[in-house]
Amino acid sequence: TEAASSTFDIIVGAGSDGSVLMVEAEGSFAPEAQALAALNEAVDEAQRIGHAIGAWASALKKDVSDGLRPYPSELESIVEDAYGDAIREQTKALRQGDMASSRKAYGDLCQKVDGLSLEKDYTRADSSRVLKKLSSRAMCALVRSEGLRSDGRDLTTVRPIDIDMAPLPTAHGSVVFTRGETQSLATCTLGDQSMQLRVDDALEPNTEKRFYLQYAFPPSSVGETGRTGAPGRREVGHGALAEKALRYALPDAKTFPYSMRVESLITESCGSSSMASVCGGCLALLDAGVPLTTSVAGVAMGVLLDDVDDPVVLTDILGIEDALGGMDFKVAGSRDGISAFQLDVKELGLKAATLEKALAQAREARLHVLRREVVEEHFQAPFPDGVPAAARPK
Question: What is the pLDDT of residues 38-56, one digit of tens each?
Answer without folding.
Answer: 999 999 999 999 999 988 8
